[in-house]
Amino acid sequence: MSSRRAVRSGGFGEHALSRRSLLAGSAAVLAAGLAACGRDSPVSSSGGSAGSSSGTRGSLTIGAIPDQDPEVLQRLFGTLADSMSEALDLDVTYQPVTDYGAAVSLFRTGDLDLVWFGGLTGVQARLQTLGAEPVAQRDIDESFTSVFIVNADTGLTPADDLTPLADLRFTYGSETSTSGRLMPAYFLSEQAVDPEGFPAGPGFSGSHDATISLVASGSYQAGVLNEQVWAARLEDGTVDPAAVVQYARTPEYHDYHWLAGPQAVERLGADLPDRLLEYFTGLPAGDEVLELFGAGAFIPTEAANYDQIEAVGRDLGLIS
User: Fold this and answer.
1) Is 54 inside a domain boundary?
2) Mean per-residue pLDDT for 116-139?
3) Most buried by CB count within 10 Å: which residue of 45, 69, 87, 182?
4) Tens of pLDDT along 150-191?
5) Per the domain annotation, does 49 fall within a domain?
6) Cα 299 → chain centroid
7) For the residues of 112-124, what is the DSSP string, one character each?
8) Residues 6 or more apart from 42 whose CB is under 8 A from it?
9) Residue 293's domain is classified under what CATH number?
10) Range(s) of the domain holding residue 197
11) Which residues contact 164 (CB under 8 A, 6 or more apart)?
């Protein structure tokens, strides 16, 4: 299994929004991922996971948008499931999904109880799921950034001017990624660059790791991704600095957060959001979960923190 850190984070500006406290498709699943998680609670056909064999513990199924390589996510969320299970006295199962839309869909149907969403997918899931509650974000998620990267053969050197990117073959990450598409598209348009006007149209790599690979290989001349993933890949030596370089950084915005579903609250009690918030914010400095998430701490969040993302999503036609 990969030893690479599972990460995401973060400009050229100050766009941080406010925060407050309190919690709030494809249904294809990677069966191998469930087995690797070390949990024996099966996923029921009606949604959520079955309880333990003793019937004395409740069950919680967690998920996440697939923004990095599957083995990286498996390590991250498998570790988290073990930690949450012990702390909350629940049978916690991590259920991988195949794409961003599946995470939103499975949350809406109740097959996923608690999901680590990006800003845009979190807004989409909350608008589609009456009673969904934002729980927590990392400390770094209130000032998140993306980076534009270019193939070294372009000859471009770091700058704040995004207009030279307009004439390059360009790829985003997933079509509904906040840090890999939504906010970068917004900041491109702020500099009068048509976010859909690249030669032959923009590409969509599907993940931050894939964006790095495609730009490094020259398949695309430029791309954009989550800065935390970029920094981590530089640190672990998987990026060739002779092939791909950072060109620009975006202003800050809110991004990743945990969203709890109403069916889980009905099943496990009205105090579930508070219990989850207490768990996340109570993780001690240096805890393995925090290390894997690339965070110093989790902090409370609220729906209003994602108002900017919702507005941009509506402008780009990604939220109706």
Assistant:
1) no
2) 97
3) 182
4) 999 999 999 999 999 999 999 999 999 999 999 999 999 999
5) no
6) 16
7) -SEEEE-HHHHHH
8) 49, 50
9) 3.40.190.10
10) 145-249
11) 156
